[in-house]
Amino acid sequence: MTRRFAGTVPSGELGFRFGEPLDVDGDGHADIAAGARFKLWQRTQQNGSAAVWSGASGAQIRAWDGEWPDGLFGHWVMPIPDLSGDGLADLIIAAPHGLVDGRIRGLVVARSPKTGKELWKREETESENLGWDLTLAGDQNGDGYTDLFVGAPAGDNSRVYLLSGKDGTALRTYAPREEAGTFGWYVARLDDLDGDGRPDLAVGAPFAQDADGAIVGGAWVLSSASGRELYHWTGTDRRGGFGGVVAAVADLDGDGKGEIAVAAPGTEDQMRTIPGELRVYSSATGKELRNWSGSQPGELYGRMVVASGDLDGDGVEDIAISAPWHRREAADKVGRVELRSGRSGAVLGELFGDEADCWFGWHIRRAPDPDGRGRPALLIGSLRHPVDGKVGVGVLDLYVLRRAKNHGTTSRGTRRSDIR
Questions:
Q1: Which partner from 149, 340, 409, 411 sits 20 to 30 angstroms from 63, CA to CA?
Q2: In this predicted model, what pLDDT tens digit does every residue of 250-278 receive, in sequence order?
Q3: Which of helix, strand or coil describes residue 65?
């Protein structure tokens, strides 16, 4: 571990969901942005907060408190390439419980870390929980701005929006052809799969029903330009929450396009009985390429899945998979992150949390090497990690991964995290 970014809010849960670090202050170093969505206002309302820290010094650059009662502002904090014209990255911040016309509709705002000012705000009016998940979509309309895929998974009209990065207007709406509760719970940007020159998207719906009405979860791959369904997979277990996570991973079958990972980490009422499962599908054929399961019941295996860079030097990007409720000896919910070879699927190593009930690996994002040497690095959140005796504060740890000369296993809690 090279650096720790610690929260300050008791039970604030820093880092529920955060994006890849980008440079917001112009010093050439990628900066870290995250939110504490449970920060209280007037001791009772979970308005939330968001902040960005210097990747070079760790000093806080800018912070905001949520303005919407119980809005969970900071649930998602995503750095985005320059929207304001100052040449610096800006931030997208979601408050999925924000009230609009007296209903929990959700909203997404763009803010400038340089000035602190709001650049635009998008309030939901039809669906619910706008901003529960989001991801950068690339420039979908050719205006020079990075756009966003944003999920609104609650209510009877769950959907995903393509929002303009320029002003937050809706460029397109995506919805499944059949009933799919919680469609938009998770969204992921994919490679261009249909040859139209635009990145496509994967959407998860962990409470979607199968043809017999059983709630087994589902995942969809859609064309971003037309909304056409390219692939659709369903889960097989009512307990699994299939589609609870969808992610883009590296090309595993050599066809030049990245693959699609779909996780079933477990539903809230049954997650203690199953370890969690991750399936990887070919983006070219839709066929299943890999199927991995967790090591113990209830560990939430597959809670996060990210392409981690080439860790073993074989020319294929590898995969990091988290299990934030993993038990270690007598300590519950310590958490672990499993590093797997993209080529063979073999486990290359593991990282573990350093406290009981810290939920290490709740969220993960790839990060630049802080030393500029091009080594793979991961920003890993421990959502409930205590800080200075305060419970549930949360921390983000930056790990630089390098291959060990002695081909040993991944080091646990050292300043540098090795893989074999």
A1: 149
A2: 898 888 889 999 999 986 555 567 899 99
A3: strand
Minimal CA–CA distance to 123: which of 85, 58, 71, 177?
A: 71
Q: Which residues pair with 51 in a beta bridge?
A: 34, 63
CA-based nearest residue to 122, from 98, 154, 88: 98
Closest by alpha carbon to 325, among 292, 300, 350?
A: 300
Q: Confirm if 188 and 246 have CB atoms less than 8 A apart.
A: yes
Q: Decide: pTM greater than 0.90.
A: yes
| Alpha-carbon gap, residue 413 to 256, rounded angstroms | 36
Retrieve residue 120's tokens.
């635009």
Between the alpha carbon of residue 405 and those of residues 176, 337, 418, the distances in Å are 50, 21, 9
69-86 pLDDT, tens digit per residue, is 999 999 999 999 999 999
- What single-letter amino acid sits at 9? V
CA 14 to chain centre: 14
Residue showing tokens 């097989």? 236
* Rounded distance between C-alpha atoms, residue 383 and residue 335, angstroms: 10
Placement of tokens 């699994």 in the chain:
240
Tell me the three state secondary structure of residue 271: helix
